[in-house]
Write a structure and sequence with these properties.
The chain is mainly beta and 92 residues long. The chain contains one helix and five strands. The longest helix has 10 residues. The chain is globular and about 45 Å long.
Length: 92
């Protein structure tokens, strides 16, 4: 596959930024993604949260880490995302 095709394929994948809320499984972390939107009727800004099961091959991410996740092929019954990179690691 050429580099141009690979770049085009990467461009179609969804990415999200979220916080790791659980790292207790092997090669899997749970990432909470928050998004803010206006209420359809009242216009007040509200927060919606989604939790994604994300593949972490090296078991390197810990609870509290802010990460970028990317959509991928189904890896298991619930895992359809993988960690792309670490954005921020809190001080411990």
């Amino acid at each position: 596959m050429s580099e141009a095709m690979a770049a085009a394929r990467e461009g179609r994948r969804k990415t999200r930024q979220g916080t790791v809320v659980s790292d207790r499984m092997d090669k899997t972390v749970v990432v909470k993604v928050e998004r803010r939107l206006a209420h359809p009727l009242y216009g007040k800004r509200i927060t919606r949260r989604s939790r994604f099961y994300v593949h972490d091959e090296e078991n390197e991410y810990r609870t509290g880490d802010v990460v970028i996740i990317e959509e991928t092929r189904p890896l298991s019954k619930q895992k359809r995302w993988r960690v792309t990179r670490l954005v921020e690691r809190p001080e411990r």
